[in-house]
Specification:
binds flavin mononucleotide; 4-stranded antiparallel beta sheet; 15% strand; alpha+beta
Length: 193
């Protein structure tokens, strides 16, 4: 697939079958993440892939434990692939995906979030090329900001001073591919001279 075809084929998927992705595909997706641009060339971020549906679901529920709905009125994300913003009955922030990659970065680094999201974009594009559905999910810090979260980070040997910046969930789509939203006009300008 040409790069532009992959970019156009990628959509945030929030409905998953139970089928797990292969370890081989997961390794390719992680490699793509590891090759992302990173501020100052410091490679400060790290990825922990949870290749286990039960644990992914559990962390997905931790992700929703402190979801703040205060300022969400009037927002909608997707009719075809409703998000936790659209549907308050969704209790698993990872939507039943069987795998999640948690991206951690040094919490005192100015570009921690930017670095992490470069990694995440590389991963979702590589996943798309492999026919694997994905979605970037936020609230990384909140998800691990509890005793259980800290214990998991310790078990996974995430270095001291690191915090989770976000997630990429992975699996196979349940149902039809959604249509992309039309692009808002006026967001691109070319200035010549
Ligand atoms: C910084 C960022 C945070 C996001 N957080 C979430 C999230 O927590 N939950 C979710 O379902 N989607 C999340 N998304 C996915 C967006 O909702 C999605 O990219 C957007 O609706 C556009 O749809 P598309 O990805 O299918 O083009 C996030 C995307 C970005 C870039």
């Amino acid at each position: 697939m040409a790069l532009m075809d992959i970019i156009k084929a990628r959509h945030s998927i929030r409905k998953y079958t139970d089928k797990q992705i292969s370890r081989e595909d997961l390794k390719k997706i992680l490699e793509a993440g590891s090759l992302a641009p990173n501020a100052g060339g410091g490679q400060r971020s790290m990825m922990v892939a949870v290749h286990d549906k039960e644990l992914t679901t559990h962390i997905g529920k931790m992700n929703m434990a402190h979801f703040d709905r205060t300022n969400l009125a009037g927002n909608y994300v997707s009719k075809e692939q409703p998000s936790t913003i659209d549907d308050p009955t969704i209790k698993n922030g990872f939507y039943g995906a069987p795998t999640v990659v948690c991206v951690f970065c040094q919490d005192n680094f100015l570009f921690r979030t930017a670095d992490a999201f470069c990694i995440m974009e590389n991963m979702v594009l590589q996943a798309t090329e492999l026919g694997i559905a994905s979605c970037i999910v936020s609230r990384g810090y909140e998800t691990f900001n509890c005793e259980e979260g800290r214990q998991l980070m310790k078990k996974w040997e995430v270095p001291e001073g690191y915090a989770c910046q976000g997630f990429v969930i992975l699996g196979y789509i349940d149902g039809e591919q959604p249509h992309g939203k039309p692009r808002k006009p006026g967001r691109i300008k070319i200035v010549e001279g």
